[in-house]
Amino acid sequence: MAEHDSPFTPLPSDDLARGLALAFADKPGLAHIGLVGDTYTVLLNGRDTAGRFCLIDMHIPPGGGPPPHRHDFEESFILLEGEMVATFRGEKTTVKAGQTVHIPANAPHQFHNESGQDVRLLCICSPAGQEEFFAEVGVPVATRTTPPPKLSETEQAAFRAKAEALAPKYRTELLKQA
Q: Which residues form the Cupin type-2 domain (predicted)?
């Protein structure tokens, strides 16, 4: 191979139209979304990352966490505080603060806070888009730890129907509880 030949594609030029994104969970103006008893704060959305990923700060109270689901994108969770049970393809694993869990695209999974303490984690979805699903199906709340309003059985059924109807638009499938 000649010295000037390279098996690698050269890096494109810096996109000067894109700026630095600085995010922190208590920054005024961030979206705090109440969903399934949890509160999700979107730190970086697809507009911030050219669609490559989104970053969500998740506050999961005792008993919280989404139902079983799967989606056609990669997802990683970095536990900052507490511990949770991650169920991956039916197998449960306890994950503690300081650990990271990666879920491959399309794999059935869920996480659940079975402890008596709040859990805080960062969620990275790649590519971006999951934050849009959360915004469309959830409800705005005041802060990153404000719980969403409690739902009656009728309201829970309506929420589930809305989430199931919107899920395919966001490459997500809600699965039946085991």
A: 58-125
Between strands 172-174 and 119-126, the pairing is unpaired
Domain boundaries, the chain: 32-145
Coil, strand or helix: which one is 35?
Answer: strand
Structure confidence by residue, pLDDT tens digits, 93-138:
999 999 999 999 999 999 999 999 999 999 999 999 999 999 999 9
Q: What would the two tokens of residue 173 be?
A: 């499938």
At residue 94, what is the residue type? Answer: T
| Residues 37, 61 contacting (CB under 8 angstroms) | yes
pTM: 0.90
SS3 category, 54: strand
Cα 16 to Cα 54: distance, rounded to the nearest angstrom: 21
Report residues of the chain scoring pLDDT below 70. 1-6, 178
**DSSP annotation string for 70-122:** EESSEEEEEEEESEEEEEETTEEEEEETT-EEEE-TT--EEEE--SSS-EEEE
d(CA 111, CA 124): 14
Question: Nearest to residue 30, comparing CAs of 57, 69, 63?
Answer: 57
